[in-house]
Design a protein that fits this description.
Length: about 210
């Protein structure tokens, strides 16, 4: 193996490491945002906002690295699939973290504890489900597992059902209008996080390449 190829492979490994770091940050911060929401902890917003700036910088760094490698190396086959896949999933990761920040931004104003026991259970499950989906999505990317997308679609249907049920619970009233508006947005943010997880897992099907008999 020549030195140019070895250098190219080192660059691909660097890009992969940064993508995995993005996955890890999204997963960690999603769990923290749910905790803050359920606890009414508005102070977590400052921490996650700083993390969002780190993610934005890392996202741009990855994009620049990928574009440079495509320009300099003119990659083909699996290398090109990898680089194109990174360009497609990193915006999903960046947007997902934006949703996480929006969840925690409502933590101080959205009285999750004022929901009915059924409403609290649904909101808690949405947070758990989103964390499960993103954990599976991260593993899917790392393992290049094309089968994860089908399993996540089932979980995404559960997320959609929870979103609809909790939305109906909020619409029935019982809370101040501003709180209803905030919590309605939160349910939408979780629903979108589930959709982004499914989108990323579907990109892995392309990344994994053609099936082999």
């Amino acid at each position: 193996m020549g030195e140019p190829r070895q250098e190219f492979e080192r660059e691909l490994e660097t890009i992969e490491g940064k993508v995995i770091q993005l996955f890890a940050m999204v997963g960690e911060d999603l769990s923290e945002a749910t905790r803050a929401l359920l606890a009414g902890d508005g102070e977590a917003f400052t921490i996650l906002l700083e993390r969002d700036q780190e993610i934005d910088a890392l996202y741009l760094e990855v994009e620049e690295l990928v574009q440079r490698e495509i320009l300099l190396q003119a990659p083909v086959a699996s290398d090109l699939r990898f680089l194109l896949s990174v360009l497609r999933i990193t915006p999903e990761l960046e947007r997902s973290h934006d949703l996480i920040v929006q969840i925690v931004a409502t933590a101080a104003n959205a009285p999750a504890g004022a929901l009915s026991p059924a409403g609290q259970a649904m909101l808690t499950r949405m947070g758990q489900l989103a964390a499960e989906m993103w954990g599976q999505t991260s593993d899917c990317w790392y393992q290049r597992d094309r089968s994860t997308a089908a399993r996540l679609s089932i979980k995404d249907q559960e997320m959609d059902d929870l979103h609809a049920r909790l939305h109906a619970e909020l619409a029935a009233g019982g809370l101040p209008v501003p709180a209803i508006m905030d919590l309605t947005l939160v349910t939408r943010f979780y629903e979108r996080l589930g959709a982004h997880a499914v989108n990323v897992s579907r990109r892995v099907i392309y990344l994994a390449g053609p099936k082999r008999d």
